[in-house]
Amino acid sequence: MPNLPSLGLRNRNGRGPLPTNRTPAPVSAYVVDCAIYVDGHRVEGSWNHADAIEEVRRRSSGFVWIGLHEPTEKQINGIADTFGLHELAVEDAVHAHQRPKLERYDNTLFMVLKTVRYTDTETRSTTSEIVDTGELMVFLGRDFVITVRHGKHAGLGDVRSQLEADPEQLALGPSAVLHGVADHVVDTYLEVTEAIQDDIDEIEAEVFEPRTKIDAEQIYLMKREVMELRRAVLPLTKPMQRLAEGYTPMVADEVRSYFRNVEDHLAKVSEMVGSFDELLTTLVDATLAKITLQQNTDMRKISAWVAIVSTPTMIAGIYGMNFTHMPELEWTFGYPLALMVMLGACITLFKIFRRNKWL
């Protein structure tokens, strides 16, 4: 298998203090970061994946955290061989399009999470996506954690910075990173659901506002995006429960309580998403009823005007037959009388329809 491009150099004698004045090497396009953490603190220097895990195992302390962004199969093979990642999990990490899940392969835990991002109202059209989704995979081992991200959003730079600012939490090991990632993802779920709640409130106010025209297409679009969010949230419930209940010894006991908090937040999101689906279904029914009512009103108006216009049309049609023996044809006031009858009939019908609120 080909080796990945090196992220830096280290002293090959494997002894003595680590040099801190290495010349930084350029980071590969798919390797976002590669770092060693010992006692909750980041070890200075640039590393490639092989040197990093070798140093951790030489010290018998700490762990490696590698962040990847949309690697190809060829690019991830070197890391997979070094860390002993299962080929099925590697295949899922490369090709993505997986549902949220938690699997254990020998001494490695593999977790898939769906990431979401809310598209601002000002930047989207009626046919664009409201909820943009991506994927995040996490490989968890005794002394390493590897995150693989798919999509242009949900970067983990802030998560890494927050954990590095809390050495006590980071000292709990790789499972603390898994918790930080899961907590970050679920927090974005909360943010997105709150934004969608505002959108649904606006739609609800518009639907039940008198004399407003409703675009049912926007409601259908919102319902489709809520279903997309639901596919990201609901399958994650069971994996989060398993992590909180001690599914694997690779999750430290101190970290399990934090996963219970994440599970509570996820349950809140699940309830909100479920209520969104029911509410949007109700709004669709209300919108269709309102559209039907508007169409009936329009048809009444059309029918009323047809009745008004048909009366003079009928009179004009009869006197346009040009029969020899017709009443009042020779009368001087026959023509103005016919016009007055037509006008009077139209005015009478207009008042009747107006009184009955057809016009």
UniProtKB/TrEMBL annotation:
SUPFAM superfamilies given in the database record: CorA soluble domain-like (SSF143865), Magnesium transport protein CorA, transmembrane region (SSF144083)
Which keywords has UniProt assigned to this entry? Cell membrane, Ion transport, Magnesium, Membrane, Transmembrane, Transmembrane helix, Transport
Protein name from the UniProt record? Magnesium transport protein CorA
Cite a single GO MF annotation: magnesium ion transmembrane transporter activity
Tell whether Ion transport is among the UniProt keywords.
yes
**Major place of localization?**
membrane
**Gene this protein is translated from:** corA
Q: Where is this region: Disordered?
A: 1-23
Q: How does it sit in the membrane?
A: Multi-pass membrane protein
> Which locations, inside or outside the cell, does it occupy?
Cell membrane; Membrane
Signal sequence span is none
Q: What is the annotated role of this protein in its UniProt record?
A: Mediates influx of magnesium ions. Alternates between open and closed states. Activated by low cytoplasmic Mg(2+) levels. Inactive when cytoplasmic Mg(2+) levels are high.
Q: In which domain of life is the source organism classified?
A: Bacteria
Q: Where are the transmembrane segments?
A: 302-321, 333-353
Which GO cellular component term is one of those annotated?
plasma membrane
Q: Report which reactions are catalysed by this protein.
A: Mg(2+)(in) = Mg(2+)(out)
UniProt record similarity statement = Belongs to the CorA metal ion transporter (MIT) (TC 1.A.35) family.
